[in-house]
Amino acid sequence: MNEIDRSLGVGDPELIDRSPLAIAGRRVTGRFLVDEWGLDSDLVAVVGRLPSVRWGAKVHGAGRIPDGPALLVHDRHPADLGWLVVVAAIGRATGRSVRFTGVPDVAPLMALARRVGGVGSDPADLRGLLRAGNLVTIGLGWGHVVRTPGGPPAPWAIEAALATGAPLVPVAVHRGGLRALRPEVRIGEPVATRRRRSARAADDVSSEVCARVAALL
Description:
Elements: H1 3-7, H2 20-29, H3 41-48, H4 51-54, E1 58-60, E2 70-74, H5 82-94, E3 98-100, H6 109-115, H7 123-131, E4 135-139, H8 155-164, E5 168-174, E6 184-187, H9 199-216
Parallel strand pairs: 1-6, 2-4, 2-5, 3-4
Antiparallel strand pairs: 5-6
């Protein structure tokens, strides 16, 4: 349970009233809080109700996402915001806030992104989020993205997953061409990281998650 949920006096976060009236009331009284990374869960709930998000991508394989922490590694495409599709779709499918990494450290972009779950490229932030049980997304490296899902994920992200034992979950966004109304998000089998802390292990899990993302496409 995070700081926001404790402050509202609710033992089960799912029981917190996220209705528009309750959220507005907390805004007026000032009882809402943000967590140590800047997430405002009430704001995330409001964004999640927007039609373009609520009726967005279909998700296949959501049951493969573990209940605890995980690093969701998704494909890259230079012409769209695949990370946003992943965050919104998996957040809706799991009922959990999904964080995303790699936000440029530029004001006011960083401050706004943190309110809805974004963080920069600081390994300490990622390790902290994973240790706290969060789902966090990161895209593959840019690589030759025109012909492949992308290059290997950032080494610091892989190291954070190995340090915390969080699995890497491969994710691919099927865009379906220019006329597709709803993209599809496909989730593969996680790559385990526990007891794999060596430099060779980092290369192995990186290669493995890249292969699994490619297979999903």
